[in-house]
Amino acid sequence: MTRPTGDLDGFRLWPGLLDRAAQEALRDEVFARMRGGPLYTPRMPKSGAPMSVRMTNFGALGWVTDKERGYRYQETHPDTGKPWPEMPEMVLELWRKHSGYAADPEACLVNLYEGDARMGLHVDSDEEDWDAPVLSISLGDTAVFRIGGVLRSDPTRSVRLASGDVCMLGGSSRRAYHGVDRILPGTSRLLPKGGRINLTVRRVTVPR
Ligand code: MD3
Ligand code: FE
């Protein structure tokens, strides 16, 4: 399935793009880099309510959120104050091969879904460069991903994202509502404690 909704173009899904060996190599790189930029609990603006997903970032810029300052990109880890670990070479290679975008990505958001973690329907709108696509790499248990249209009221479709699947959101799909309804436990043996890791790779600033 490459077109989850009739009126969205630019959504591409490559099921199983990463074979098991590539998934293991990427998993190991992610865990190694997380030692220099640990997972933290993001909090909703204003309410301070914790998200159920834990996060960290790789690359020059990282997406963060907290009660006081809300959603933003910044160059440093909110807990350690250190720069984010470098983006894994495999991630850069996937972007260069598949994004069709001239400039390199600046941010690789790492989302860890454990237990009944989920992500409500939202639009990614904290990037300055809305022409750049977003690339997503799934590792571990299968996610029930939901994608709609550019209006919250547009119909939505459910797409399962399994370990090794890569999807890209360009064109009008870049502005589409999307979220993660749930993770299907026990669907992969890649992560030792189960759960799912999603890497979301983005260009944040307009290249010049
Ligand atoms: C559709 N993450 O971090 S990745 C996010 O699986 C986020 O962790 C989800 O949504 C996850 O913001 C989905 C796939 C994805 C990424 C960006 C999109 C889907 C998108 C941007 C526009 C439309
Ligand atoms: Fe998103």
Would you write up a description of this structure?
The chain has 2 helices and 12 strands; from the N terminus they run E-H-E-E-E-H-E-E-E-E-E-E-E-E. The strands form 3 sheets. A 6-stranded antiparallel sheet has the order 1-10-7-12-5-2, with helices on one face. The chain has a 4-stranded antiparallel sheet with strand order 6-11-8-9, with no helix packed on it. 12% of the residues lie in helices and 29% in strands. It has a single domain (5-202), classed as Alpha-ketoglutarate-dependent dioxygenase AlkB-like (Jelly Rolls, Sandwich), CATH 2.60.120. With 208 residues, it is of the alpha+beta class. The protein has helices at residues 20-34, 89-98; strands at residues 11-14, 54-58, 62-64, 72-74, 107-113, 119-122, 134-140, 143-147, 157-161, 166-169, 178-183, 196-202. The site of fe (iii) ion has 3 residues, from loops.
